[in-house]
Amino acid sequence: MPVRPAAPARPTGTSPAAARAGDRESSRRRHPRLLGVAGGLAGLALLAGCASAPAEGGGSTAAGSENCARMVTNSGGLDDRSFNQSSWAGLQKAEKDDGIQARVLVSTTENDLAPNVAQAVDSGCGFVLTVGYELAPATEEQAKAHPDIDFAIVDETVEAPNVKPILFDTAQASYLAGYLAAGVSTTGKVATFGGGNQPPVTLFMDGFADGVDAYNAAHGTSVQLLGWSKEAQDGSFTGDFEDVNKGKQLAQALIDQGADVIMPVAGQVGEGAASAALATGGVDVIWVDNDGYDTLPAEYRPIMLTSVIKDTEKAVQQIAVSSTDDSFSNDPYVGTLDNGGVDLAPFHDLASSVSPELSAELDALRGQIVSGAVTVTSPSQP
Q: Are 89 and 58 a contacting pair, CB within 8 Å?
């Protein structure tokens, strides 16, 4: 999951969609939304004229129609087992369930980013989704030039009346993951590492660190966290989100220091940690962004303890639909334990390694975080 460079605290959303009502009303007169059977029939000629795009897995789209969507990946590509993949799953679900014709433009290098966003805009679709900090400049530029189009961006904030940030307070779910890791460790050492020292990455790591500390405080133990210091805001990073070998090397170094549970926060690089854990034996992995039990190769299932999930799929689907029914606003979406935007995945094959007592403690902690009785904080929170 490539992320943005460190930056000041993210601002909250500004004005709602009403701030641009005039532009949107003018746009509706130019491009009526194709809803219902009659609209669909009327748009057949437009469907035939849809501009082609470098895409994977997309359906047809109606050029000039606001009832279609374009997504642009960051340079990590579509099958990143991270937020590109889950964001696209959300648009695919919007296509299947809500009739929003979707297509994705895949970026493989930084040079693809701005042209792909421009091409997404030129498609005539009413909703454009971009993924990650790399796409922030192009998103901002195109949003300002096209106030009649709704934009959303994952894991980043762009300030514009027609751009909705999609953010996740992953520290909350990572707190539970850290507590769990400390509770199942037999060596008394657990670890985390990142692809880069950037807020969406360190947000996971801060929550994980606090969860380990909370377990130690509750049980009088001294489980040690390797790879990250919340106090120093520094730790172990590969400097890369795509090179699996770097993840394997760093994970092996942490395993050699005694870690028997590792949470990589590094997109595809994390698969290297799973490889090292599997080869070593006796080491479990906590995945991030989506359920690694489902998205990683099946060979890693025996070592997949859980995953810190961001429900990007559900958020993207809902926001895409809001662009078709005039409920879209630029108010940031922030996923939390309370609204189901973040959570822990099931323990799957390793359920027997989590005692009923530890599972009950995790359930109680989840409730306390939702109620506000336990507050999870991080300088990287959205």
A: no
Q: What is the pLDDT of residues 219-239, one digit of tens each?
A: 999 999 999 999 999 999 999
Amino acid at 80: D
CB 344 within 8 A of CB 306: yes
Residues 138-177 have pLDDT tens digits of 999 999 999 999 999 999 999 999 999 999 999 999 999 9
Is 216 in the same domain as 148? no
262 and 118 assigned to the same domain: no
**By the 8 A CB rule, do 286 and 305 touch?**
yes
How does strand 261-265 pair with strand 189-194?
A: parallel
Residue closest to 353 by CA, chosen among 298, 306, 291: 306
Residue 34 falls inside a structural domain: no
Q: Are residues 269 and 356 in the same domain?
A: yes
Beta bridge partners of 163: 151
Q: Which domain holds residue 274?
A: 170-310+347-371
CB 175 within 8 A of CB 344: no
Residues paired with 229 in a beta bridge: 234
Q: Are residues 273 and 126 in the same domain?
A: no
CA distances from 199 to 55, 83, 195, 335, 341 (A): 29, 15, 11, 15, 18
Residues 116 and 174 both lie in one domain: no
Using alpha carbons only, give the angle 276, 282, 283 rounded to the nearest 5 degrees. 50
Would you state the pLDDT for residue 22?
43
